[in-house]
Amino acid sequence: MKSSRTLLFCCDGASRGAYTLPHLTTTQLVIIAIIVILAIIPSVIILRRLGFSPWWAIIAPLSPLNIIGLWVLAFVKWPVEDPFKS
Predict the structure, then answer these.
(1) Sorting pLDDT into bands at 50, 70 and 90, what band is 8?
(2) Are 80 and 50 a contacting pair, CB within 8 Å?
């Protein structure tokens, strides 16, 4: 006997059996974009001050990756670490 359970958020017959995401409104997409930008901007500033490439800030909004990035940042030798080096 086949199971009739499916992973669906919508109930139309056209997408039956497929996993579909719920519809996001324009307001929700704008809010998500603002949150992503608010996570990236301070990360770029901090990374530049530390002497790292600002491209690492791309992982800031991605939750599992930013935790790994913080651990790497905590234990790697910083390029600006030695103030007496000429």
Answers:
(1) very low
(2) yes
